[in-house]
Amino acid sequence: MTASALAALPFKEQFPVVHAEVCLNNARWHPLSVGAKKAIVDYLDYKSGGGGKAPQYSAQQQERVKELYARLIGARASEISFVPSTLAGENLVVAALGLPAVGGNVVTDALHFEGSLYLYGELQRQGLDVRTIKPREGRIDLKDLEAQIDKNTKLVAISLVSMINGFQHDLKAVCERAHAQGAYVFADIVQAAGAVPIDVHSCGVDFCAAASYKWLMGDMGVGFLYVREELLDRLRRPQYGYRQLSDMEYHIFPYDAPGDAVFDWKQKHDAAGYFEVGTVSNTTVAALSFSLEWLQQIGVSAIQERRQPLLQRLQKEMPALGFEAMTPVESTSPIVAFARKNTTEITAKLDRANIDIAIYPHRVRISPSFYNNESDVNKLVDCLSA
C-alpha cells in the first residue's frame, strides 16, 4: 500500500482513543485498535467456554504470531523466542554470553534505553568494562562508537531508535564495525519494530528484542527475542523451562519407592529452545494475531512515509514556540523530541485541550502514529501557541 492510498483510509475509526483525546504519545504504549480488541474478546470467549472444541487454539495462535513477527523483521520463525519484555530479552542475551564472568568489555551509548544502562551499570559494579558513548547534537557518531570497539569487546548494545529523541542508528554499519572486531550486536528495537522497516538478516544484527505494546499494537506481557540461528551453538541456556522441549515424558511408578520417576526429554534447537521458559499471555498474543497481520497489509514503509510530513512540520514549527530540537533533522523514526527549560506550564494547557504528549521536566516527546493526521498536529501547535 502506498502512502497516498494509506492517507485516504479512515484509520481513525479503527482507534477508539480518538474519541477520548488527541493522542500524540504512541511511543509510550500504542492504543489498541478495534480489530485487536475483538481478537482479545474472541480469545476470552474461547477460554470462558472451556476450550474443549478447539484445544489447540492458543498454541496455534502463538505459532502464527511468531511467524508474523518474524516476517515483519525479515527473520525465520525458528529465530524468534517469546520473552516478557525488551529488557528481559537483553538480560537473557547478556546471561547467554556469560557476562560479566567471561571478561572483556561492552560498548553502549547514552541514547540506549535507561533500564539497559542500569543493567550495564550493575555489571560494571561487578567488574565489567563498560564503555558508554555520549551523543553529539542528538546523534551517536559511528566513529565514536567504532573507536571504543576492540578485540576484547564482547557486545555492542544499542537502541535502534532511541526512546529519548528518536535518533536511529545505521544498524548495518554498527554490525559491520562490531563484527570486524569479533563482537556481537544487540539492538533494542521496541521503538522501531512496526514503525520503521527492519531486515535483521540484511543488516547482520546478532540479537534484537522488542516488547509488543508499542508500535506492534499488542499489550504488556509478550515480547520477542531474535537470535541469529547460527549463533545458538555458541550460547548457553541462561534458564530452563518446559517450553524449551520438543518432547517430554514423565514416568511415575506409584508402586515403587517414593521419588522413583524417570524424565525423558528432547530440547528444541531453535531460539525458543534456548530462551523460552513458561507461559505466555494469550490475550496479548490474540491482539497481535490481528495487529501483526494488519501492519504487513498496510506496510511499514507506507506508515513511515505517511508519518514524515507530520514529523517534519513539528521539526519546523516547535522551535518557534520555544522548544529546542533534540532530534536530528534527517530522522525518519516515529519520535521527535524538544528541550525546554521549564515544561510545567504547558502540562495544564495540554490537559485542558485533551492532548497527550510525553512531558518530562526539561523536554517533550511527540510520537504520531498512522491514524494521526494534520488536524492532530494543528491542535497541538495551536494549543502551544495560545
Task: Offer a quick outline of the entry.
The chain is built from 13 helices and 15 strands.
Can you tell me about this structure?
- The protein is α/β, with parallel strands linked by helices.
- Helix content is 37%, strand content 18%.
- The protein has 2 domains: 3-31 and 299-385, Aspartate Aminotransferase, domain 1, CATH 3.90.1150; 39-243 and 254-295, 3-Layer(aba) Sandwich (Aspartate Aminotransferase, domain 2), CATH 3.40.640.10.
- It has helices at residues 3-7, 34-48, 57-73, 86-96, 114-125, 142-148, 171-180, 200-203, 271-275, 282-298, 300-317, 344-353, 374-385; strands at residues 22-23, 80-83, 105-109, 129-133, 153-159, 184-188, 207-211, 223-227, 245-252, 261-267, 324-325, 336-339, 355-356, 358-360, 363-366.
- β9 and β10 form a beta hairpin.
- α3 runs parallel beside α10 (282-298).
- The longest helix has 18 residues, at 300-317.
Strand fraction:
15-25%
Largest sheet geometry? 7 strands, mixed
CATH class of the largest domain: Alpha Beta
Strand order of the largest sheet: 2-8-7-6-5-3-4
Fraction of helical residues: 25-40%
The residue ranges in which pLDDT falls below 50 over 5 or more consecutive positions are none
- Based on CA atoms alone, the radius of gyration comes out at 23 Å
Cα distance spanning the termini: 38 Å
The fold-level CATH name of the largest domain is Aspartate Aminotransferase, domain 2
Q: What's the architecture of the largest domain, going by CATH? A: 3-Layer(aba) Sandwich
Number of strands: 15
The CATH superfamily of the largest domain is known as Type I PLP-dependent aspartate aminotransferase-like (Major domain)
**Helix count, DSSP H or I runs of 4 or more residues:** 13
Give the class from helix and strand content and strand pairing. Answer: alpha/beta
How many separate domains make up the residues? Answer: 2
Mean of the pLDDT scores? 93
The helix-strand sequence is: HEHHEHEHEHEHEHEEEEHHHEEHEEEH
Global geometry? globular
